[in-house]
Amino acid sequence: MKDVQVDVLIIGAGPSGCVAAAYLNKQGVNVKVIEKSVFPRFVIGESLLPRCMDHFEEVDLLDCLIAQNFEVKSGARFIKGDTICEFDFSEKYTQGYDWTWQAPRADFDYALTEELKKKGVDIAFKQEVISVAFNKDGSSQTTVKTENDETFQVQAKFIIDSSGYGRVLPRLLNLDKPSAIPEHSSIFSHVKELERPAGTEGTFITFDVLDTDTWFWVIPFSNGNTSLGFVGKTEFIDSFKGTPTDRLSEMLKESSYYYERFKDVDFLFEPKIIQNYSKSVTQLYGKGYALTGNSAEFLDPVFSSGVTFATESGLKAAKLITKELQNESVDWEKEYAEYMKKGVSVFASYVKEWYTGNLQTIFFEGTDNPDIKKQICAVLAGYVWDETNPFVKNHDRLIKTLANIIRMDQGK
Predict the structure, then answer these.
(1) Which intervals of the chain form a coiled coil (predicted)?
(2) In this structure, which of 94, 133, 180, 396 has its CB flanked by the most CB atoms within 10 Å?
(3) CATH number for the segment(s) 4-73+101-178+278-342
């Protein structure tokens, strides 16, 4: 293999890498994308948020996704016992898209990479980053191994690490740090629904809350398949014995709402288990690189924030790199790290307060106030940088305060 010289090397061809590559390619920047796996490939993260639609539209990737006819997600439903809390994205505080998709990520990501190829972006699959060496000016030499165990060098002015769970630069540069999010694990698979309920009941994304720490997701796709998965404390997931199929089959009995619907269906693949999935890093950027998407931070899937953070960070990093390549000054701490941390901190508050039970109190006992519900809905739609929204600006204390007021009103 011949060595390669580019302006920007992107590690990973998921949504973050694709959005970054599409933007840079549109600006005339020479880009190469390295992807370890071959597409289409399975990955979790099948529920999107409306905010990421802005990103796909801006980099001309929206039309190729619309053509796939994915299941439209217009809101979300949360169930706890006999109580149902629904959010409609068209009734949110912040202006923006009021719909998105529920999509098998294998098909979704493949559609993105195929469109990038049409745009002339150089994407190489089955190639793995082995090492990276940075120069004082931020330029780098990355050693890449092909599927035939050949190696070659990529000379780049900048690297965007969009490697997701692979977390290439965090591993190579020792940037990992423990997450502040409680330790939870997940088990999940897909099923083919031959007798899916008609109408909204059959297609609505739902989170069946079993207790404060445990919930069950149901994500129907337009192809007739449905994603099923449990999230709970690691010890809860591990309390079920046998094969992954045995464990998930037994766990389905925990959902009184959905058990009858799914008790006789077969899993399309052996259920997968991810333990202690929340991740964090010591820094989001360095001289010559930026971490985006799950390479930077992964919270918890309860609010489906993964793809939105991936595309938000990928697009933001690409824009700042373009400025640098045009010899404009960039304050990476302020314009990237602080910006991304603002959004992450908002969602992190919601995740933490979900597991304290405060947010669940609001959802199931106190969402009668339409203005409050619209403000929370905007957060759930991914618009977590809109500080005109009180539930964004005061995220660190407002959820707890409101939950306490609800409890006091109910004499608890």
Answers:
(1) 315-342
(2) 94
(3) 3.50.50.60
